[in-house]
Amino acid sequence: MARPEETGSERAGAERTGADRDASGQSGAGRSRAVVIMAAGLGTRMRSATIKVLHPVAGRPMIHYPVQSALELGAERVVVVLGHQRDRVEAALRAAFPEAPIEVAVQAEQLGTAHAVLCARPALADFDGDVFILSGDVPTLPTATIQALDTVTGEAAVGVLGMRLDDPGTYGRLVSEGGRLARITEFRDADDRVRAIREVNAGVYRADARFLFETLGHLDSDNAQGEYYLTDIVAAAAEQGRGTAALILDGEAAADAEGVNDRLDLAAAERRMQTRLRTHLMQTGVTLLDPARTTLHAGVEVGPDTVIEPDVALLGHTVVGPGCHIEQGCRIADSHIGHGAHIKGQSHIEAARIGDGCQVGPFARLRTGTVLHEKVKVGNFVETKKTVLEAGAKASHLSYLGDAHVGAGANIGAGTITCNYDGVNKFRTTIGAGAFIGSDTQLVAPVSVGDGAFVGAGSTITQDVPPDALALSRGRQANVDGWAKRRRARLAEEAADRRKD
Ligand code: UD1
Ligand code: CA
Fold first, then answer.
1. Residue 27 reports pLDDT greater than 80
2. What is the CATH number of the domain that holds 409?
3. How many A from CA of 362 to the centre of ligand 2?
4. Ligand 1 contact, 172 CB (< 6 A)
5. pTM (2 decimals)?
6. Which domain holds residue 244?
């Protein structure tokens, strides 16, 4: 796991932990926190029309995660540096964090990471304290790791998060001298000796605000890429004797600090995040029969003793209560499920509320605005939309219920259809408590069936049915005695005549 390197030149503050800080972003030592998130680049290697930081991981745009971390760190200021597609990114952030103190700094042209942070300077002009610098494309970095970096950095002017990798690739190399982090050398600027270093820069930093902005203002772009390198603040701090520190991660913790550059990295990040979310559910008492076949979005909650079969996806803002059973192949999005519900196989549920003890499916489709009160039963091949079924109501087979209100204990027969749409407008159907709707009934809305009323099977109901009445609208049945027998005889005779010819 995380292991501090003894590279900090000033470790006096090493015992200070993030826990000393209160929610206002003040540390125990009285230092404020700000976070700068770099997210201006397009992310060319994604080969996408959409900017990299808007690609989702566990259902949320990647940029969501560093912003969440910033808030968990108690930052009083969060500055997101945006360039490409900045309106889209800003809109996504405002929607996800409507209350958060997020400021947008614009970096119209991407001149390098140092330039990106400089673009945040006006927003932090009067800020004095610690600036955490995060990247918008490192979605799996746990906030606790950033807290650990804070602790390790202590009184140093700059602290860097590092990873020890078997294959250090093209990451910037952490170069130490005399046991202290002396500088970061970018891969393209490094000689073979430096390229052999396996400790690399994860691109996450904590820096003293004044030191940071003073130093950034003086950096040049005299390097292989002709860019302004944020990493140059490390050499500046070392040269000025201001103290540098590094927290080097190993193994899985290092993998969690790796960023996303292409679709393969995106898949790897998704896998790590899924593992984390599944592990959390199992640790809190949820059974996943085959964890690798459960898909979860960040923020999904599931109560203890719920059993989830393989190939279930719980998406968006979904909350599942305790003691539920969710069978194979269900997809549940943005929905709330009470306790003890049984969702049978292959059901699709979206933006619905399902009460305690309900039974749904198999093959049910509950669409937006469906509300099932307790102990409702919705069976196979039933579709509902903007429909309320009150306690104990049943629609067991083959129905469409749209824009409808079904009273407690009502029974909806197989093949019942609410005809809620006339091609232009939608209309409501109201079915009273304890009503019985016979099979293969069409309810042409707007229409209501009173409490305790009975609709005969095969009816097309176009007028309101009073409470406790019987409604029948099918043609009257006529039986013709012996007709079928006479027909068979006639057909047999005709066939015999044809054979003679
Ligand atoms: C950077 C580090 C490297 C480190 C690696 C970790 C520098 C010079 N190098 O390299 O040491 O190992 O991250 O992933 O910092 N960005 C902007 N504006 C810019 C340039 C970048 O907002 O002008 C953003 C990008 O959108 C991205 C982040 O900063 O979110 C990192 O930029 P990137 O170009 O990926 O940096 P690397 O070259 O990978
Ligand atoms: Ca990168």
1. no
2. 2.160.10.10
3. 45
4. yes
5. 0.90
6. 14-264
